[in-house]
Design brief:
The protein folds into 3 domains: 14-151 and 346-427, no CATH class; 159-253, no CATH class; 259-330, no CATH class. Strands 1, 2, 3, 4, 5, 6 and 7 form a 7-stranded antiparallel β-sheet that branches. A hairpin with a 4-residue loop joins strand 4 and strand 5 (194-207). It is α+β, with helices and mostly antiparallel strands. It contains 13 helices and 7 strands. Helix 10 runs parallel beside helix 13 (403-427) and helix 12 packs antiparallel against helix 13 (403-427).
């Protein structure tokens, strides 16, 4: 009796079949990964490299920029490759009747699920480490190299029909032909708080080396005003004005790294700081609202004969303004952006684990050409998943949907649908 139990146990955890299915899935994952890697690479990297090469940036620096951008592509490609690879493998095993042979030998569907879950866990952690460790490091190196490129070729930052912001300077650019620019508008602010607007019909762009760039504005109109006294302004016209933008101003945007390029720990630290600051602002605004409400209540209680009845309208307006401001503060957009990116850093990499349940369940239903059908279905699911993430992100920012559900709902749907399909298949 004991020998029979031991034999059944060995057949249930057949290491040979586990290794066989595991490496089949790993091979399909690598094929799928190369496919998605190529798609994201062309979409995000080659277009950038082409724009830089047009500015005659050395090929070595372009190659380094591409290298430092690879962690983003790897972290995006791995989860979807896990989905497609698992679908292709299980679909082929099912269409070739290999799963049927395993079941006929006394094994259960667990022999298919276990290798897939192992693959999903490994890929999820590797994808998370890539996104959380290599991506921030690559971003830092990318920023340093981009600064070096800007120092040697500042004209990279100015493109035709675009708007560029450098610290307190905004430049609106029209058509560009070589170094000639048509229709230039410059808005800036001096250290003394003076706001300036400069318009020119044409301009010539000149590189000033490490000093930045220079714009020779022809037929220019100049307008300046004090920030504290808008009715105190000056204006003038000139046939030629030389305007300079320093390199420090041009690379200022690179210093402020977005939450997507931070590690999860750094994003969490920023969230904690923003929440603390937000609580302070909310408490201050609530105190003002309570005080204004108390004053308004006293006015209404005193009635028309009260000394402050004439100030009722202004107090109501002030109360409404404070109430609306409180709602605006509570729905802080910057905090929402960081929260969404924080949950996204976990949802997308660990999507590989949740994909496994859906992929195995769908793969077990394959009839013929399981590998090809699995690849096509995997692509469709990837598109739907990415669309749900995009919709969730926009719903979180515009409607105020909880950030956790905005990012994790696609994973939860994959898990629920996969488990339901698996139960249906097993009961049959």
């Amino acid at each position: 009796m004991g020998k029979a139990v031991s034999l059944e146990s060995k057949r249930f955890i057949s290491l040979t079949l586990f290794r066989y299915i595991f490496f089949e899935m790993l091979f399909s994952f690598m094929i799928s990964f190369l496919f998605f890697f190529f798609i994201f690479f062309v979409n995000q990297i080659l277009l950038m490299a082409q724009q830089i090469l047009e500015k005659h940036v050395p090929l070595g620096q372009v190659a380094l920029l591409v290298l430092y951008s690879l962690p983003t592509i790897i972290s995006q490609s791995a989860p979807f490759a896990c989905l497609v690879g698992t679908l292709m493998t299980v679909g082929r095993l099912t269409s070739d009747n290999e799963v049927l042979v395993m079941l006929s030998s006394g094994l259960s569907y667990k022999i298919v699920f276990f290798p897939a879950i192992a693959i999903g866990i490994i890929i999820s952690f590797l994808s998370f480490l890539t996104n959380d460790v290599l991506l921030p490091a690559g971003t830092v190196q990318f920023s340093r190299l981009w600064r070096q490129i800007l120092v040697s070729s500042p004209a990279l930052e100015l493109e035709a029909n675009s708007v560029k912001k450098f610290m307190d300077t905004v430049i609106v650019i029209g058509d560009v032909s070589g170094n000639k620019i048509d229709n230039v508008l410059i808005l800036d602010k001096t250290k003394d708080g003076e706001r300036r607007m400069i318009m020119a019909g044409s301009a010539e762009l000149k590189d000033s080396g490490r000093d930045g760039l220079s714009l020779d504005l022809e037929n220019a109109f100049f307008h300046s005003s004090k920030q504290i006294a808008w009715d105190d302004y000056d204006y003038a016209r000139a046939s030629l004005i030389q305007y300079r933008v320093s390199v420090e101003d041009m690379i200022e945007d690179l210093v402020n790294i977005s939450p997507r390029e931070m590690s999860s720990r750094d994003v969490y630290t920023v969230i904690s700081e923003k929440r603390s600051e937000l609580d302070t602002r909310i408490n201050t605004r609530k105190s003002r609202l309570i005080n204004n409400g108390a004053v308004l209540e006293n006015i209404l209680r005193a009635g028309t004969e009260g000394p402050s009845w004439n100030a009722k309208a202004s107090n109501i307006t002030s109360f409404r303004r404070d109430f609306n401001m409180l709602n605006t503060i509570m729905n802080d957009r910057a905090l929402f952006i960081h929260l969404i990116e924080f949950y996204r850093k976990f949802a997308v990499p660990f999507g590989a684990f949740f994909f496994v349940f859906l992929a195995v369940s769908l793969g077990l239903m394959a009839k013929k050409s399981g590998q090809t059908v699995g690849f096509i279905i995997g692509i469709l699911i990837s598109v739907i998943y990415w669309s749900l993430l995009f919709i969730g992100q926009n719903m979180g920012l515009r409607v105020g949907t909880p950030p956790f559900w905005s990012m994790w709902l696609p994973n939860i749907l994959c898990l629920v649908i996969g488990v339901v399909l698996a139960l249906i298949k097993v009961r049959r």
